[in-house]
Amino acid sequence: MVSQLANSEQLPQEAIGAEAVTEFLEACDDDELQKLESISLPAGRAAYSVDSLEKLTAQMLATGCDLFTARQTLFNVERDWRPPADPIGEPVGNPAVDRVLKIVNRWLLAAERRWGTPATINIEHVRTAFASEAKTREYLKELKQRAELNEKIVAEMEARIGVQPGGSSSSVTRWLALARQRNCCLYCGTFIDFFTAEMDHIVPRKGPESTNTRVNLAAACKECNKDKSNRPFAVWAEDTGRPNVSYAAVAERVRNLTPYDNFDGRELKRFKQEVLLRLKKRTPDEAIDSRSIASVAWMARELAARIKYHFRSKQEITVGTYAGSITADARRATGFEGKVELIGGKAKTRLDRRHHAMDAAIVALLRPSVAQTLAIRSNMRQAENLSQRHTGNWKQFDGADHAAQKIYAVWRQHMEVLLGLFNEALQADNVPVTQNLRLGLGNSKAHDDTVRPFCPKGSTPKRLGDAWSVEEIDRASTPQLWLALTRLPDFDAKTGLPENLQREIRVKNRWFSAPDVINIFPKSIAAIAVREGWAEIGSTIHHARLYRLAPKKPGGKPEYGMVRVFMQDLLRHSSEDLFTVPLPPESISLRTAQAKVREQVLAGTAEYLTWIVSGTELAFDSSAFESGSGALKDFLTILPETNTWTITGFYDTARITIKPRQLSAEGLENQNNALLANNQAVCRILGVKGLQISLNVLLQQTVEVIHRNALGEKRYGDAASNSLPTTVQLKA
């Protein structure tokens, strides 16, 4: 029965008890099946195995004891026993989930070391929090399609009824319900239209709130809605005097619902079945309580269990899990999002990445009672919008009883204090935006997918006896070939190799003579030899090493450059410090560096400064660029306070790509400020391209290369840093 109700697997007919379960379910009437359907059991993860359940059941039936006593007797455990949980950061096999678990684990352990065991931990779960990038894109695509459908419906409403009702979700819901019901009252079949229809809850909920799901909403005539009042349909239909109102008649109308909106056949069938179940229900839905507002996402609950288990030996802590909608309700209820001073305006804006910190601060102050009050307020507001009865009662609701009202009032006071503290932190730039850095080699692709021939059709092959320029030698397909060419007696570091029809070299125990064709890359590019061809490795840059070059003349101005270090040159050094591994002259990293940088690095005259990776945080005074020209000047004209940047790529041998650390292109789509949304420089720098800037230009002023600890604080070099990267200041 457990397996059948959990829907975790198909119950084999030969399984012990399968026949009895099938017979039992077939004998149940609709009400009994509905009650069984309401039982929620986990699919795949349970506290007890089937074997344990069988033993516990047998023990309780044999002795008449309760579960706790049976568990103690059979397994010799304490009454407060809980199944062991995995460590907080233990991977589950899903890359997106594992990434979040690692971040949470690192942050919590650092906070525990700094401040001790927390009393309360709150978790906000949003739909995409533990989703992969592909799933997130799919979800966002679904949201976009839904928004486009709503826009289409609003346009149709305007065209057909001549009035645009503002495009609110409640108006769209009413329009869709009428379309599915073919403009007939679901209860009596009377003709109704957009202006005469009223939205009714098929099954009411205990308390002031309602169940506002699509399957519980019916478009009804005024007379039916008034007569039904606040009763379940099944109860009202038995004693009403309204004509054509009965379960059989309404069920027939439900079966004839029209698939107006984005329902496919399967969804419409399931929708009808769920509506029929609601029509049979005789008791009101349970009132909203702390259980109904807690996040039901499996991973949020799993994380909460892991956190509780981690702190179990120190003290009992409270771990709350809340859906993201509760956080949004908290922001609106206190006016927080209209007073916070983020970049882009006094409101929550996705333009400023620090809006995540705002949500985290709000979640930290949540309590179960407050969350319950917020959920009821939101539910009442939605019900008013759907029913078109705008009494405003939800605005005055501040708790179901005196205790809840008192807690809610104190919470509002705390939120006012939090607002002031948060705005102060924003003004002082004390809300850092952090990003995980990949410092290991990892297991990403070694090269691009496209493999190209060394000598395409129409090109002239390079023979060993030909004259070779230094640039052509640097394009050698392997480090061994480069070494063989540069060790020839007639090689010159400035001019290369002259023509020599007697030339011979040996590469990996293979001899080549002057007429032999030698494989070189067709252009100066970072690449490796792959399957009788070559492939680019520009996307495999592990890090870049920054250098200050000696001035050309005594007392002259120094220049700056970098060596991009490719994974190919680090594969043999995976167990060493990758950032200090010596780079031989034949390495692809040095062969593709700027000539002046390469020359001084090999000569030992270049001063090593530090290393950077994709994701490294840079801080510098942007005002120095306001008097210049180009995209950066235009960008700073609108957003002059931008002083922290993130490296997002290495554009070429001399330039890096950077983006503002605190800003996101995501916020431009919904940005009310047309000056921001329509500015080409802003869109380009925040978009895919970013800003390409010369290292030599950038490092002519003081630049701080910032590395942070798990708490977001700058990490400086000391004995406690455990060889972790530290913040350095590069002075011009």
Describe this structure in words.
By secondary structure, the protein is α+β, with helices and mostly antiparallel strands. It has 6 domains: 1-41, no CATH class; 50-82, no CATH class; 104-133 and 290-428, Nucleotidyltransferase, domain 5 (2-Layer Sandwich), CATH 3.30.420; 168-280, Orthogonal Bundle (DNA Binding (I), subunit A); 452-536, Alpha-Beta Plaits (2-Layer Sandwich); 616-730, no CATH class. The strands form 6 sheets. Strands 16-15-14-13-17-18 form a 6-stranded antiparallel sheet. Strands 5-9-8 form a 3-stranded antiparallel sheet, with no helix packed on it. Strands 11-10-12 form a 3-stranded antiparallel sheet. A hairpin with a 2-residue loop joins β8 and β9 (533-536). α7 (133-161) crosses α8 (169-180) and α8 (169-180) crosses α18. The longest helix is centred in the first third of the chain and has 29 residues, at 133-161. The N and C termini lie far apart (74 Å). The mean pLDDT is 86. Residues 132-293 form the HNH Cas9-type domain. One of its GO terms (molecular function) is endonuclease activity. Keywords: Antiviral defense, DNA-binding, Endonuclease, Hydrolase, Magnesium, Manganese, Metal-binding, Nuclease, RNA-binding. Monomer. Binds crRNA and tracrRNA. InterPro entries: Cas9_alpha-helical_lobe (IPR040619), Cas9_b_hairpin (IPR040796), Cas9_C (IPR041217), Cas9_Topo (IPR041225), HNH (IPR002711), HNH_CAS9 (IPR033114), HNH_nuc (IPR003615), RNaseH_sf (IPR036397).
